[in-house]
Design a protein that fits this description.
Nucleotidyltransferase, domain 5; Rossmann fold; 5 domains; 37 helices; globular; binds iron/sulfur cluster
Length: 952
């Protein structure tokens, strides 16, 4: 057996040298003259079923490393290959390592009584406690989470993993996911944080944080108390109310000729070069605006699409004469593209023209903070949240003082989708807004965004917001409007997804939690009952609190029994379509019926109560706020009931219904969904009705030379009042010279899943062995990514290449960053990597597409769409599946060539591309010719020839 402690040494690895960095002056006053940073590596994420494989701890004195502890731990279970890929730790490292019990005392001795520092230390402590007992909870000890500190004081950072924090704070991290190196880096990050804290904190902020941390015994309570003391003399920053931007003139006019050679953009922007496709696009877009046409425009990669529509949008909207107000709405698929347009493209136009651009972004109301609700929640004025909840709101505190927009998208420290209940209590909400009587003079961020959007000449929104209310954006008669729908190939799915109703335990619990806390005397109903109200009202509030608490229990039981029932019908599929009139629908409905009825009862009694409360003579703002919160909660409850009625009844034939089972086999989690089958007629009646001057654009919009598929799916039909023009711009790239698309037909067929993946792994191994080039492998399922990663690990290691595997839920940009930073890496992934990622030049030279990206035929929405198409006497495979596959394949292949100088090989390891009947249709949709390769020899000869620069 190896010694418990493999190495204890005075470290020479610290990147903070004593000479280059004085210890931060606050280190001592904050009680951190000496602290120990810890980290562990594990076989997985669950302390109940996974185990520790490595422990690391690093002692810091005066801000520098003074000692290091490291030990492997035998987990007494097999090491998953994915962990070896992630950490570089192998089975051989841990088989002879000590057991946890043999190493735990040395670890405790090393930590001694010092404050403990970690990056998300709750994870480490949960594993340590599961292995060694409650002693490892370190009761009474100060524990500092570097991630939490960064979230509170640098909320604007986009990401907070250790790798990201090291990069932001300029700390080296050579062996990420190795315990002692991660611990050393975590400690150094803390030192950097402390040295910069004086410029990020002020007295009232520190005092608020200390007070909130003192309630509920935050593990850093003592640290925050000390922070309050050291920052007592620091005054809050003066909010910048100066209108510096007003001094810069607004853009008043722009010509398309600025895009041409010798134009403003070429002169002023380093990255800009005139492109004939972009100029052509801008002309087409302007002409569609001026002549009121609907334009379908395919603009291939490299066109410079954003400027191709933004410049004509500005040219047209600024040219309004006299009283005529003009506005162009630009709708894009993702909020990130919205941000990119504003922060990159509009900024570039502003820079080049030395003006302010009259453009703004508008998001849905729920994206903006309500300062009144936030203050009430975080300072516990309304008594609704637990201490732990309020600790989780801390990352919003500093930002809430400083933000001018209140848009939660400004910060990366808080994600509404991860904290839906908390965010629903503090975000802007029309039902909960006190309007003109609100005491928060700078809190109406949403109203300000709406005002800005009215004055904007170019308004940036996303498809989801646009589709919720076309009338709101287009209905006004005093403004002439035109529309650009960017990423139009995603528009149908975005509209369907925005119109999909979901009903599950989570949605029910969230609305119930807005009214009552199941396990405590907190909650809105009880809090109201404690204020001075007439006896009848008080008694009804108490009674509704009891009913709501009972509903938590009923919801759990109802969804659990519906899930168990559903499990019997769903076999291997996690998604099961619900067809009206079937046994499954009847059973599901009956399992959830009682719950829905009791929720209806709660809703109706809340309504009556609200009427009674509104009639009371109490004119205090507290009373008004209470009524508003109750009304907002009642509305949210009404929405969930509506979703429950729709998804369990399955009665509206315009919708497709399905259930989805997730979670463990022995405790499945059930969700019910209802989605519109087709949105064509809805769009025909709303978006297109009497409306022209709309441009739909994307890099992948047409098939062959036809726009039929998108026109049908979006309900676009030419008429006397709607002239439709269709244009496909030529590509600025010479695809047949810049790339090869090879299809090795000698591999086993894709339908033989097992043999196929073995064959694909063999070919990729050979490619890795022969070509030291960055390689992206696109799969159509996570199962394939896992299988390929497993099979390619050893060859990648032998060749010294970094192998990266996208994992479910793992953030794509972090993977891409690592991929870019390690030339010659192999990245295996799915879903989000198929589109929207930019890898230029040597960042990507070999692309493998494992299987043709057909949609899953058993997907309920696809099934329902197919039936609809069939009822129109068409073949759904050719009308839906093949076109969707072609667009996706083009998107995937589009990752390879992003620039004039890019060159690369695409390998499609699915022989159906050349051997099937529909293969020709797919090939015709692609930018370059497909070459079927009948033997391994010719396949590698073709690659050799291409990379050696010889042309075919
Ligand atoms: S005006 Fe409305 S949204 Fe704004 S802070 Fe007040 S209550 Fe909140």
């Amino acid at each position: 057996m190896k010694p418990a402690q493999q190495e204890i040494s005075k470290s020479s690895t610290s990147t903070i040298s004593k000479s280059s960095l004085e210890p931060p002056k606050w280190l001592g006053p904050l009680g951190l003259s000496r602290f120990v940073a810890i980290d562990i590596e594990t076989t997985g994420l669950l302390p109940s079923s996974d185990a520790i494989i490595e422990i690391g701890a690093v002692r810091f004195e005066g801000g520098v490393v003074s000692d290091i502890f490291q030990s492997f731990v035998n987990p007494r279970r097999p090491l998953p290959p994915a962990i070896t890929v992630l950490t570089g730790i192998h089975e051989r490292d841990i088989t002879d390592a000590p057991l946890f019990d043999d190493v735990s005392q040395a670890f405790l001795n090393f930590i001694d009584d010092n404050p403990i520092v970690g990056q998300n230390p709750s994870f480490d402590i949960a594993f340590l406690t599961a292995s060694g007992g409650t002693e490892f909870r370190f009761p009474g000890r100060t524990i500092i989470d570097t991630g939490e500190l960064a979230r509170i004081f640098w909320a604007e950072f986009p990401r907070f993993s250790l790798t990201n924090l090291c990069s932001f704070f300029d700390v080296s991290l050579e062996s990420a996911h190795r315990a002692s190196d991660d611990a050393r880096a975590t400690g150094e990050v803390l030192v950097r944080i402390i040295s910069r804290l004086p410029s990020r904190v002020w007295n009232s902020l520190a005092s608020d944080i200390a007070n909130i941390a003192a309630q509920g015994h935050h593990r850093s309570e003592e640290f925050f108390k000390s922070l309050r003391a050291v920052s007592a003399r620091i005054e809050p920053p003066v909010l910048d109310n100066a209108h510096a931007l007003d001094e810069i003139p607004l853009l008043s006019k722009i010509e398309l000729s600025e895009l041409e050679s010798g134009g403003l953009f070429e002169k002023k922007l380093d990255q800009f070069s005139p492109r004939k496709q972009q100029i052509e696009m801008a002309r087409q877009v302007l002409s569609a605006f001026e002549e009121n046409h609907t334009l379908l425009l395919e603009a291939p990669t490299g066109t410079g699409k954003s400027f191709g529509y933004l410049i004509p949008a500005l040219a047209w909207s600024l040219a309004g004469e006299g009283e005529e107000k003009r506005q162009v709405i630009v709708s894009s698929h993702t909020r990130s593209l919205q941000e990119q347009l504003l922060k990159k493209d509009i900024k570039d136009i502003a820079f080049a023209t030395s003006t302010n651009i009259p453009a703004s972004v508008l998001k849905g109301r729920e994206n903006y903070l309500c300062l009144r609700r936030f203050r009430s929640a975080i300072h516990d004025i309304d008594g609704r949240l637990s201490d732990g909840d309020r600790h989780r709101l801390l990352p919003l505190l500093r930002w809430s003082y400083l933000t001018k927009s209140g848009d939660i998208g400004e910060i990366g420290a808080f994600h509404p989708e991860k904290e839906p209940l908390l965010w629903s209590l503090v975000c802007s909400d029309s039902a909960a807004c006190s309007g003109p009587t609100c005491g928060s003079h700078r809190g109406d961020f949403y109203r300000k965004a709406v005002d800005d959007s009215r004055n904007a000449k170019v308004l940036l929104i996303n498809h989801a917001l646009f589709s919720t209310d076309f009338e709101r954006f287009l209905g006004s008669t005093d403004v002439s409007r035109r529309v650009v729908i960017d990423e139009a190939h995603q528009f149908e799915r975005a509209v369907v997804s925005a119109s999909t109703h979901a009903f599950n335990l989570k949605s029910v619990r969230i609305v119930l939690s807005r009214l009552a806390d199941e396990r405590s005397s907190r909650g809105l109903l009880l809090r109201n009952a404690k204020s001075k109200l007439p006896e009848a009202v008080e008694s009804e509030l108490l009674s509704l609190d009891i009913l709501t608490k009972a509903l938590f229990q009923l919801a759990r039981a109802s969804f659990a029994s519906a899930a168990l029932l559903a499990q019997k019908f769903t076999a291997e599929e996690s998604k099961q379509r619900l067809l009206p009139g079937t046994h499954l629908v009847a059973k599901t409905e009956s399992a959830l019926q009682n719950l829905i009825e009791r929720m209806q009862e709660l809703h109706s009694r809340l309504d009556s109560l609200l009427k009674d409360m509104s009639r009371l003579s109490d004119s205090s703002s507290e009373h008004k706020d209470r009524v508003l919160e109750l009304r907002s909660s009642a509305l949210a409850l009404g929405e969930v009931i509506k979703a429950g009625e729709l998804t369990t009844g399955c009665k509206d034939s315009d919708f497709v219904y399905w259930l989805e089972l997730t979670g463990q086999k022995n405790s499945p989690v059930l969700s019910l969904y209802a989605a519109p089958i087709s949105i064509g007629s809805k769009l025909a009646d709303t978006l297109w009705l009497g409306r022209t001057g709309t441009v739909l654009t994307s890099a992948t919009l047409a098939l062959g030379n036809s726009f039929d598929v998108i026109e049908k799916s979006l309900g676009i039909s030419e008429s006397s009042s709607m002239i439709v023009q269709r244009r496909i711009l030529s590509s600025p790239f010479a695809f047949n010279e810049q790339m090869r698309i090879l299809c090795p037909t000698f591999l086993p067929e894709a339908k033989d899943t097992e043999q196929h993946i073995i064959g694909v792994a063999r070919i990729i191994s050979e490619v890795i062995a022969r070509y030291d080039k960055s390689t992206l492998v696109l799969c159509t399922s996570y199962a394939s990514t896992i299988e390929l990663a497993k099979r390619l690990t050893s060859i990648a290691r032998r060749r010294g290449r970094t192998l990266l595997q996208q994992q479910s839920g793992r953030i794509t940009h972090e993977l891409l960053k690592t991929f870019r930073e390690h030339p010659g890496s192999i990245l295996i992934g799915t879903s989000t990597l198929w589109e929207g990622i930019d890898l230029v030049g040597e960042e990507l030279e070999i692309l493998v597409i494992v299987k043709l990206p057909f949609e899953v035929p058993t997907d309920p929405w696809i099934q329902a769409r197919s039936e609809l198409v069939q009822s129109m006497k068409m073949d759904p495979f050719y009308a839906i599946s093949v076109p969707a596959c072609a667009i996706r394949l083009r998107q995937g292949l589009g990752r390879l060539i992003r620039h004039h100088e890019d060159r690369g090989i695409a390998i499609v390891t699915d022989s159906r591309l050349v051997s099937s009947r529909y293969g020709k249709v797919l090939q015709n949709a692609l930018a370059a010719d497909v070459i079927g390769m009948g033997s391994e020899e010719s396949f590698f000869a073709e690659i050799e020839e291409f990379f050696s620069g010889k042309s075919r």
